[in-house]
Amino acid sequence: MAEAPSILRIGLAQIDCALGDVAANAERHLAWIERAREEKVDLLVFPELSLTGYRLLHLTSRVALPADSPVLARLAEAAGPMAVVLGFVEEDRRGILHNSAALLQHGSPVWVHRKLYLPTYGIFQEERFLGAGKRLALAPLPSGNAGLLVCEDLWYPDLARRLATAGARLIVVISAGPGRVGSGQLPASQENWELLTRSTALVNTCWVAYCNRVGWEEGSFYPGGSHIVRPGGELTERAPLLEEHLLVTEIDLRDADRLRWSLPLLADIRDDIEGPDDPA
User: Fold this and answer.
1) Following DSSP, what letter does each residue of 86-113 receive, concatenated?
2) Percent with pLDDT over 70 in the chain
């Protein structure tokens, strides 16, 4: 069996979304897919809930799609050999709605990750309208298995660690992270996300690709700032703030292997340490 290629050309499609308009957003996806194909992208990543917009509230049930929806099938067909990750509201077989990320590959939807942690505080109301995912698994990419998380999932470090120890050399994070202005050169929200992605890449010795949306929605703004972080925590490229952009870069997954050889943090993880959370 041929060895999976280690060089992966990633495209982060930092786009705006029309709230509640799946048809219009699907057309926008088709245009960005075509652009990414011209750039010879291997893996194209869209933001969280890119097919629907984020602050859906009572619109949530109206925009829900099954994982085998003709909408996803059409986008997968347009992508051809390119793998695509996008965000949508998924309706499962029991009628429960999820904030999900779909992997489209080989002309069809092949894999779905359901967001595990649903923020329900401040402007976030996800748990009122969505069900939380209950499974963490590796996404099957041609270049090898990768981790895939949705926004708030990254704030719980154990998830990324479990993906990395299972073999993921790349963790993809799709996000609809609203902006928060601070006193620095970057929005305070951007500084927080880059702290998270860089620390995740450092302690898990893996690549991290973070794709955030842009635009305004229901009084909130989304700054973009999508970026790639090397194993070890170095930010290599960042998309512009506040504008749509396709950030394309090549990564070598063997960089994770090399760092794991010299910095064996994952190999040295222990499961025999007693602590205050042990049952009485």
Assistant:
1) EEEEEE-TTS-EEEEEEEEETTEEEEEE
2) 98
CA distance 6 to 143: 6
Going 115 to 121 to 127 to 130, the CA torsion angle's sign is: negative
CA distance 168 to 171: 7
Structure-block tokens of residue 7 = 């060089």
pTM higher than 0.70 for the full model? yes
Q: Tell me the average pLDDT across 228-253.
A: 97
| Domains along the sequence of the chain with CATH | 8-262 (3.60.110.10)
State pLDDT tens for residues 166-206: 999 999 999 999 987 777 788 889 999 999 999 999 999 99
The distance in angstroms from the start CA to the end CA of the chain is: 50
- Using the structure block, give the residue that is written with the tokens 């993809």: 172
Residues in the chain, total: 280
147 C-beta neighbours (distance < 10 Å), count: 29
What does the DSSP assignment read for 161-206? HHHHHTT-SEEEEEE-------SSSS-HHHHHHHHHHHHHHHHTTS
Express each pLDDT in 3-33 by its tens digit. Answer: 778 999 999 999 999 999 999 999 999 999 9
Task: Supply the DSSP symbol for 252.
Answer: E
